Amino acid sequence: MFLDHTSRGPALIDRHGRRIDYLRISITDLCNLRCFYCMPRQGVTKLPQADILTYEEFLKVARIAAGLGVRKMRITGGEPLIKRGAVKLVREIAAFPGVQTVAMTTNGTRLEKYAEVLKAAGLSRINVSLDSLRPDVYKRITRGGDLSAVLRGIDRAIEYNFRIKLNTVLINGMNADEVYRFIDFARDKGVEVRFIERMSFEDPDPYVPQDHVVATLADRYSLTPLPTASGSPHVRAFDCDGVRVGFISPRSHPFCDGCNKLRLTPNGKLKACLSSELNVDLRYILRRPHCDADIARAMSKAIALKPATGPWTACAEMWRVGG
After folding, report:
1. 249-280 tens-digit pLDDT
2. Which domains can be identified in the chain, with CATH numbers?
3. Is the pTM of this model over 0.85?
4. 38-91 pLDDT, tens per residue?
5. What is the CA radius of gyration of the chain?
6. Which of 76, 162, 289, 298 has the most other CB atoms within 10 Å of its CB?
7. Nearest one of 221, 111, 230 to 166, comparing CA atoms
8. How far is 165 from 24, CA to CA, in rounded Å?
């Protein structure tokens, strides 16, 4: 890794020449849903509270990352809106010099309550994980979730002019037949939908490949490829009769060569690759005498661990990594 000073400010560059300017911060391993592809049926072992970074520790990492050239930060979980202080964290991070965008990925169950205060805090973008528009299927996938609460949350976020993207993991035999339904819903609400290939590290079930979905949509709609959005090299986008549709396809269309992310887990592990178990333990440093330069050097070490391509062999605990 090296720090490249340009007219745009400092930039973190990994050993493969990729500019790292995006930090995903998972602030909790807890969630009020139990999506079967994310959490095991038998439940999960919660991290001890003492192992979770404190509010001040999350902020310190974010502040130093911003000073090193990270321009976009995304708050994730688990479900971030069940974490006390999530709104305040957004407000503080949004105020850091250099931070251009603060976004959040949520399951939407608490958006109806928090949309207004999140807007006031400086949150600009919301990704809502929504895997079905049929109440019975949604309940099966989430093991008990209430679709109506999510739909009310989306409506409230629209009311406050958030830029909204729906993240939909397609699953054979469950929701793969809903692609038309999602396009119509996105058009009606004025939001973007992104279809995601199931990132299953252990499950042998076949995923729904991007090309199959594109062909399905082309049977009914006119599809026009769109330029890759700045800061989102992992998304292949199309205009689908006026609806922006994105595809995140790590298995059929790998995007490692453009990866610009770091991921911070709730217990302070800094991961440079979602599918690799390699990480740097920031909590260890944060809870001993240290200075900002020590954290900056640890971030550099994490970036040095970033592989050219993800091995996709790690057994990731997705609810802790934050996707």
Report:
1. 888 888 888 899 999 999 999 999 988 889 99
2. 2-321 (3.20.20.70)
3. yes
4. 887 777 788 999 999 999 999 999 999 999 999 999 999 999 999 999 999 999
5. 19
6. 76
7. 111
8. 16
